[in-house]
Design brief:
Shape: globular
Number of domains: 1
CATH architecture: 3-Layer(aba) Sandwich
CATH class: Alpha Beta
Number of helices: 8
CATH superfamily: NAD(P)-binding Rossmann-like Domain
Radius of gyration: 20 Å
Strand order of the largest sheet: 3-2-1-4-5-6-7
Structural class: alpha/beta
CATH topology: Rossmann fold
Length: 277
Amino acid sequence: MNDIQKPVCLVLGAGAGIGGHTAKRFAAGGYHAVLARRSDEEGLARMVAEIEAAGGSATGTLLNAVEDGTIEELVERVERDTGPIEACLFNLGAQIGNRAFFDTPHKAFELGWRMTTFALFRLAQAMLPAMVERGHGTLLVTSATSAMRGNAGQHSHAAAIGGRRMLCQTLNAEFAPQGVHIAHVVVDGPVDAPDTLGRLLGDKFEAFKASKGEDGVLDPAALAETYWHLAHQPRSCWSFEVDVRPWTDTPWWNDNPAPTIDTTAAEPGFGRANESP
């Protein structure tokens, strides 16, 4: 099977974390991966080379998703020159770090919306018609805790990510009955991603990961398996929204600490320990 006959997985936001590992996973599964990112042409070429060295096929392109027409041109070019887009991961983010409300400029707030919500809208308008015509396809969308709960200092990010979640809901309502699987993935925890969290923390990144303990930070390669599973669910059992987090993290909806378990006080016959007061 040559590359032109392979199904295509398009990844927007193909950094060294979630996006890059998802591209690798789909390439390993027989897809041609198209990796798009805003900058670092050298890093992009390195990821493409790693996929090819592992026996997969991939191409890479630099893309400024905020510029008019860029997403639309990419989708058209891939469909025309590479093959039908069977799966797409929208992995663009616009996390600018914690900023007090009055320290958040209008430009920064608007940029968050353009990167996080409007870019997804443009992608869907460009890509979904072909998927609908073929009667199948998957749009995977990376999201964050801010889609579910706004925190102080996250005004731009929470507004943009919250809008992304609502947009995904409307896309799912309209296009799932037409054969297109929309999946919104809430990443509820820190990710071992040098291009995002690593850039925000700088030289504190490694110390932060060490402080979280073994498996205390989301492994993007493991998360890629979740994306792979979502893209291959039977349509009789589609997931719209899933959330993922490290095993040691408290879920976003529960700020209370986990109950203490007294393992010495198990009642006979019940097969579990009693919770201590």
